[in-house]
Design goal:
heterodimer, A: about 1050 residues, about 35% strand, B: about 120 residues, Elongation Factor Tu (Ef-tu), domain 3, 3 helices, disordered N terminus
Chain lengths: ~1050, ~120
């Protein structure tokens, strides 16, 4: 069948096929087998019916080279059974009498054999049961498909580790479960997306290296980051005729700045939906086959896709399978098998189809979105603002263009041409409320017309990069032919160089076909121009990148994803940025989120209150009211960048409590107290941000040392009520038809939904969920047993500000009361806090009120500033005394006590001055004196001194009255007069009792040298055999 | 003259009717406490493929369906009581293979009907 050749200006001679052909068979001989555990062998948790566990496996005949990487294939929705006699088909499951299963899973055997010949174990899974029932399930069975695939991998993991029926130990150690690629066709395409996400939710027990979605649906608009993706979009798909699978590529491009997984999309101008599967292809299976293009073109007359047109562009079925063989092989052998030779095909460096694809050079178009490590986005064209400012912060502008407009970026302009999703597949598809591709529409009619993007100084050095690339499609409503234009670079010296796009691409073809509301289509394809082709340009100082429309005299295109890329990772300094969850707070608690581009590895946050953090996403508490400037410095091996937001955080704490401290002596109890200014709860912490020590208004404790606590008042917000208080305002009944119904609500301030009231028909478990939008991610999920009757149930769902939250009951049991008579009075709201806006009954959103009455909500509490309060502990006196002394009867001794500012001796008997710290003691009998020493802070302690009185006959050597020390004060030496001939010992101590010097003195040797002894007050104790005397002494 | 007018009308609308399919007929509406079942039958099998049949009734669309006993010539739309109550009375029902945004409004359906569709006439409740 002849094909219509696209009109191109000339063929890009430079781009000859250079890559090895991935579609050639490999070196292994191949064997296959099947397994079948029955038609109802597995109950997917997300599906109402049991499903079959049936599959085929193709593998290298010689398994000794294993373990081998794995490919897992999932077919799409198709008739499940057929009658061999009549050829009639059925979608029942299990098959009824006279009918046999249609083995859709065997329709990819050609691919399985090819991949197995290259050393892969290829498993193809049957999903007829899911096809039979999935249209009645909310997500069309996608989660169940993921669960089924995971079940098969679990089986294979068993066969790979311990073996088992039906394979015994044949596959033990033969599968590399860390390197798996998945391929899903049609609904199986969305199924493998769900599977990858499901596997990830389980902790990634299996390594999914690559996901290929083949003519998929995308009913649920889930996104898969972090795994290389290839979407195949057949232009002549009459089944999924809006080519929804392009959203798997488009939706995920900018979702995660750390995503290093590349995205690919392959458009096949002559491909349909069914011919990828031999069981679905007319002539290759006796029932249930069709050329799906006939669904939208029943006369098959379209000049591109209609098979009845002799000059059409359709592939023969075998050609279509050859294309899949070539590109799927390249994709899996590169990303799963690590064969880097095939990267040029996937990265659009080699745009010529492999020879094994058996198609013309202009019969396949690849799009490629590089890893974030291999590109910088010059202009994402993802919102209206990019018409004037590009993604690097430089100016975007146009000259002379007759159309220059971002479209597809908001619900008011969700289509660029208002032709619908079939002709604008990149735009919003029907169903879920989610936009499609934002793109720039450009029209020109003069060679002087220009679209320009300026590069800021910090981004002008492109020497590490290799390409400028973008995606584009000819706008068939604004032109009648293929198009060409130039791309020009200008450097800082003013030098310019340009390249004709037609030298490097055939993607600017006029979209073929013309049938009803399906063809032609706007399909974006990558155009990639090597920077080396821009001769004479200083790539270290590129100031402008322009599209100059000096090729075709006039034309219209749509453009997306203008970027600079490289084949290898490029290490650039990060571009710092961050966001916060609140900018005004009465708690002082702020969550900071790093949004830095280009792979930062270190972070330094300056919160503006004197504190810092090196975490990536810190939470921080401001304890003092005020406005705070926050700076983030992000660093990676290539450099660092800093971003500052002035006065970003406004903290307005309630005033601090009034606190009263205490001053005590060691060993006493301290009582600290505080008064709450706002009537809230007082919490005591051991440090700002420290541990909670106590709650209350007075705290008594026995500190060992001076201790400071920080008191903060927590002012709990009052309970507020929203929503109808009960179900008596209208009429209705218990709803149990499905788990899709619920209520939308908006939240404007952080709050907690503490309780709601429900009316339950029957007791049983319900799962209550809050989603970020109907069909969106789950924010909260709570399963509880709800008894019958009116019940108040605890939810305690903490909510951040946001719109279009959706609360519902999910799962098998709902059976809760709802109002359905139009009586609800939406919105139910607390202005500025929360608003319940309506139900999800399309066309009657305000007429229904589902399940949740009398919401009790509480806004986030406020925290006051901290009030420090201290218990000051004064030490007790450290008493030093002269120690015990002995005097003769009638004798005396000078007592000594130190460590405070005052002393008092008891008993006073025998003391000349009981209030002196050095009283003269001359008791008549042995007496124990207790001295009470008081510090300057009033702390007291006691010590004892025993004065022992001997009889007169014991006094021989010493008589205090005759002992004289001179000079006083002494300098260098002191003399002692009044000593007898018998030597006595002397002890010189300081006032704390520390021994300074000692020795012997007598009448002849009566001096003591004092050199080296510091000036001060001392005690000199002279001790004989029977008595001793102590004399105060001053050294000067 | 009438024939001329008819030919002219068909000529004007024929681009819109290019994907219209005859055959499916609305054969019954039954209500239970849990569901309203809208039954559509055809002498030819409905498409069993990746896409989904939807039933537009005015600006409301019913998305979920089944083939009872696996019979590909019968499709039943399962509508919960609230969606059924919200559906407009007396509006024309249009069965479409595929859910297209443009078909969600009467204007869209009249000016740019997408997909393979069958007009079933008024959905009498």
């Amino acid at each position: 069948m002849r094909r219509i050749l696209f009109f191109v200006l000339f063929w890009p001679v430079a781009l000859l096929a250079q890559t090895p052909d991935p579609g050639e068979p490999g070196p292994y001989a191949v064997t296959s087998a099947e397994y079948d555990f029955g038609d109802e062998a597995f109950d997917p948790p997300s599906f109402p019916e049991p499903v079959e566990v049936t599959g085929s496996v193709h593998y290298p005949d010689d398994l000794s080279d294993g373990p081998f990487p794995v490919i897992l294939i999932l077919h799409g929705r198709h008739s499940s059974c057929y009658n061999p006699g009549t050829g009639w088909t059925s979608i029942a499951w299990p098959c009824t009498a006279g009918y046999e299963p249609i083995p859709s899973y065997t329709g990819y055997d050609y691919l399985a054999e090819q991949m197995a010949s290259h050393g892969y174990i290829v498993i193809s899974v049957s999903a007829n049961s899911i096809s039979s029932t999935d249209n009645s399930v909310g997500d069309y069975g996608m989660q169940a498909r993921g669960e089924l695939l995971q079940h098969h991998l679990d089986l294979w993991n068993d066969w790979n580790t311990v073996g088992g029926d039906p394979f015994g130990t044949m596959f033990v150690g033969k599968l590399d479960m860390d390197h798996i690629g998945t391929l899903g066709h049609s609904r199986g395409g969305e199924g493998v997306i769900f599977h990858a996400l499901y596997n990830r939710s389980l902790g990634s027990p299996y390594g999914i290296d690559a996901v290929l979605t083949l003519a998929p649906v995308d009913f649920n608009r889930q996104t898969l980051t972090g795994i290389p993706l290839l979407n195949v979009a057949p232009y002549c798909d009459g089944d999924v005729s809006d080519l929804q699978g392009v959203h798997f590529y488009d939706d995920v491009r900018y979702e995660d700045p750390t995503d290093e997984a590349p995205k690919h999309s392959l458009m096949l101008p002559g491909g349909n939906h069914n011919f990828f599967n031999t069981v679905w292809t007319p002539g290759l299976f006796p029932a249930g086959t069709a050329d799906d293009w006939g669904y939208v073109d029943w006369t098959q007359s379209d000049d591109q896709c209609g098979t009845s047109d002799p000059g059409n562009g359709r592939y023969e079925p075998e050609t279509q399978r050859n294309i899949l063989l070539a590109y799927a092989s390249a994709f899996f052998r590169f990303y799963v098998g690590g064969e880097e030779d095939f990267s040029p095909i996937l990265e659009t460096n080699d745009i010529i189809p492999p020879a094994s694809a058996t198609i013309a050079p202009d019969d396949a178009f690849m799009s490629y979105h590089p890893s974030n490590r291999k590109k910088i986005d010059l202009n994402r064209l993802d919102n209206e603002g990019t018409e004037s400012t590009n993604s690097l912060g430089g100016a975007a502008s146009q000259t002379g263009l007759t159309d220059y407009d971002i479209c597809g970026d908001d619900f008011g302009e969700q289509y660029c041409l208002n032709l619908g999703a079939s002709q604008e597949p990149h735009c919003k598809n029907g169903g879920i409320s989610m936009l499609g591709l934002s793109q720039l529409g450009i029209s020109w009619n003069s060679a002087d017309d220009v679209y320009d993007n300026e590069l800021p100084v910090e981004w002008q050095n492109l020497s590490e990069f290799e390409y400028v690339q973008f995606r584009a499609s000819v706008d068939f409503t604004g032109t009648a032919s293929a198009l060409d234009f130039s791309v020009e670079l200008e450097d800082a010296s003013g030098a310019t160089a340009s390249v004709n796009t037609a030298d490097y691409t055939n993607a600017l073809f006029y979209p073929p076909g013309d049938i009803g509301t399906t063809l032609p289509r706007i399909m974006h394809h990558t155009i990639k121009l090597p920077l080396s082709a821009f001769e004479g340009i200083d790539l270290s100082a590129v100031t402008h990148i322009r599209m100059q429309f000096n090729g075709s005299a006039s034309g219209s295109i749509f453009v997306s994803d203008l970027l600079i890329s490289s084949d290898e990772n490029v290490y650039l300094p990060p571009v710092a940025d961050f966001s916060v969850n609140v900018t005004t707070t009465c708690t002082g608690m702020v969550q900071f989120t790093d949004n830095t581009m280009l792979f930062p590895e270190e972070w330094l946050w300056d919160f503006g209150d004197g504190t810092t953090s090196d975490e990536q996403n810190p939470s921080h508490t401001y304890y003092t009211s005020g406005d705070y400037t926050v700076t983030l410095t992000a660093t990676n091996p290539a450099g660092s960048d800093e971003v500052t937001y002035e006065a970003l955080i406004h903290v307005e704490h309630p005033i601090a409590p009034t606190a009263v401290g205490d001053v005590i002596c060691a060993g006493e109890e301290a009582t600290l107290s505080a008064t709450a200014a706002g009537g809230g709860t007082l919490n005591w912490y051991d440090a700002p941000g420290g541990s909670l020590v106590y709650s209350g208004d007075a705290y008594t404790f026995e500190p060992l040392v001076s201790t400071t606590y920080y008191i903060q008042e927590t002012i709990e917000s009052p309970i507020e009520e929203v929503g109808p208080p009960d179900n008596t305002f209208g009429s209705g009944g218990y709803f149990n038809s499905n788990d899709l119904r619920g209520i939308f609500f908006n939240v404007e301030v952080p709050l907690t939904i503490e309780t709601v009231k429900v009316y339950s028909n029957m007791a049983g478990n319900r799962t209550i969920q809050v989603l970020a939008g109907e069909g969106g991610p789950v924010v909260h999920s709570l399963t509880m047993n709800i008894p019958s009757g009116e019940q108040v149930i605890d939810l305690n769902f903490a909510m951040e500000p946001g719109d279009q939250y959706y609360i519902k009951v999910t799962g098998a049991r709902v059976d809760l009361f709802r109002i359905n008579d139009g009586s609800p009075d939406y919105p139910y709201e607390i202005p500025g806090v929360i608003s319940l806006t309506g139900s999800n009954v399309v066309g009657a959103e305000l007429d229904y009120y589902y399940y949740f009455f009398d919401w009790k909500i509480r806004q986030a509490e406020c925290l006051s500033e901290l009030a420090p309060v201290t218990a000051s502990v004064s030490p007790l006196p450290d008493i030093a005394t002269i120690g015990d002394v002995t005097i003769p009867a009638g004798g005396s001794a000078t007592l000594f006590a130190s460590g405070g500012v005052s002393c008092y001796w008891e008993p006073a008997t025998g003391l000349d001055d009981p209030s002196s710290c050095t009283p003269m003691a001359s008791p008549e009998e042995t007496t124990t004196y207790t001295v009470t020493v008081t510090t300057i802070n009033g702390c007291v302690d006691t010590a004892s001194v025993v004065v022992t009185v001997t009889d007169d006959n014991g006094w021989e050597e010493l008589q205090l009255a005759g002992i004289v020390l001179y000079p006083q004060p002494a300098t260098g030496q002191v003399q002692i007069d009044g000593l007898g001939a018998v030597p006595v010992t002397y002890l010189l101590t300081d006032m704390q009792g520390k021994l300074i010097a000692q020795g012997m003195v007598d009448a002849l040797h009566n001096s003591i040298e004092l050199q080296g002894i510091p000036a001060g007050s001392y005690m000199l104790k002279l001790t004989g055999n029977m008595s001793s005397v102590s004399l105060p002494m001053i050294i000067q | 003259m009438k024939n001329l007018l008819l030919v002219l009308c068909l000529g004007i609308v024929s681009p819109l009717l290019a994907q219209q399919v005859d055959g499916p007929q609305l054969t019954g509406i039954s209500e239970t406490s849990a569901w309203t079942v809208i039954r559509i039958e055809s002498d030819q099998p409905f498409i069993i493929g990746g896409n989904r049949y939807v039933l537009h009734v005015g600006d409301v669309v019913f998305e979920h369906s089944r083939h009872p006993d696996g019979n590909e010539r019968i499709i039943e739309f399962l509508v919960d009581p609230d969606a059924w109550s919200a559906a407009p009375k007396g509006e024309d029902a249009v069965l479409v293979y595929g859910l297209y945004e443009g078909n969600m409004t009467a204007q869209g359906r009249s000016e740019h009907m997408e997909g393979r569709y069958t007009a079933l006439g008024p959905l009498t409740k």
